[in-house]
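Troubleshooting log. The previous structure file for this entry was overwritten by mistake, so regenerating from the original sequence record. Sequence copied from the archived sheet and checked twice against the printout by T.R.
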Amino acid sequence: MEREEIMLRQMAGQHLLQKTDVATAVHDLCGVQAQFLSNALHALAIRCTAVETQQLIKNWTLRGTMHVFDRQDLPLMLHQGRSHFLRPCDTMADDEKVSGERKRFFADLIVQLINSGIDEREQLKEQCFRTGMTPDEADSLFNPWGGLIRALCEEGRICHKVQEKKAFQLCEPFEPMEERAAELELARRYFTHYGPATIRDAAYFFGTTQSRVRQWLDELPVSSNVCEGRTYFWIPTDDVSNDSMPACIFLAGFDPLMLGYEKKESLFLPPEHLRGIFNLAGIVMPAVLLHGRVCGRWKKTGRRVQIMLFENVRDVQLLDENARRVWPDLRSIEWL
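Regenerated output below.
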């Protein structure tokens, strides 16, 4: 298996060659990272025939980051034994500003309020103040990076609604999957739909050790192939696409095609362009993929798109035509 075939298999597994439905996409991709919801919606739009979010929910899952995924996957995504290096304020335990007992009191109150229809973050905060929460307690309970809201999400009592404004919904009762079974299921999805991938790729994607990935591989029906000195693993499927490399794709910020593989070894991202996509603040920029190679990044504001090219591109007209196909209401393109 040569380099381009590996790339095509990766893109096919991620539904970048043939579109699918949203439920299939989020299932196969192990959810889609969604700190910025617009990124997640674009990642789905370029992979799906239509983006319907009614069945989706949003929560902290892989790598301790926010993802959108199908509500039916709650037992998998919030499986037993997972650890995200939570701060004391992100748990139900005592921290320096509020006791565990007070946390449990406000946790129950928040659940009751959401159940009654009061579901937006600021509304919940206001009601907690009315019920005796102090400013110091609020610094912990409504910490902007998590707090009691995250503790409730980690317990699977509530989750984020899939919308820009911060609001929450109750989770339906579920039984978290056993840790080993959940890890193997996620690894199976990864090597089926992100594969062919290396052990380093999988360790990067899951935020785990290479030795743990090797343990998963011992229990999965993987095939392997050596290309350019690296060993790639994948789970064969009957759905092998014969498509050619797409001419142009406007990937999302935090796109699975960028996050799915060790960034310094990505087959799509030239090393000289790495910092143009992965900046030092941890942001993964929306990439422009031209014939399978990242050549720039883009930013959309209203009906205007800015495209920053990292290298000389002969067929700028191709980028222009594809941008207008992706965004039919586009008013202008600015080249940087």
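The chain has 14 helices and twelve strands. Archived copy saved in two places this time.
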